Amino acid sequence: MARQSYYDTPHWKALKAAALKRDRYQCTVPGCGATRATSRLTVDHIEPRPRGATEPTDKDVLHNLRTLCKTHDNQVMQNSDGRRRGGGSFTVGGCDEDGFPIDPNHPWAKRRQG
Ligand SMILES: [Zn+2]
Fold this sequence. Notes:
The N and C termini lie far apart (59 Å). The chain has one domain (6-113). Strands 1-2 form a two-stranded antiparallel sheet. The protein is built from 3 helices and 2 strands, in the order αββαα. 24% of the residues lie in helices and 7% in strands. Residues 27, 29, 32, 34, 68-69, 71-72 line the site of zinc ion.
């Protein structure tokens, strides 16, 4: 019999449901706003949990979780060495109706605020 994954346990399923509810079923990246209607949402560990651990760890707590859309989950997906792509930072694509980038970290957005 295959070893059970933590992600198949009732512990994770309950935690994930609580995280989605806390985040109102929206991607938590500022400016993204993706919802269940527009993307497949996932729940990500902010501090990665130990790889391969099948029991709940001290990383498997609500305040270490965030809801991400598929796009942003892919942006911070861990490489095989456990490090995150792009240093764990996010970008938000697209522009608002004024033609400014939606991404709050984009230099244009900073110029508009200051
Ligand atoms: Zn997102």
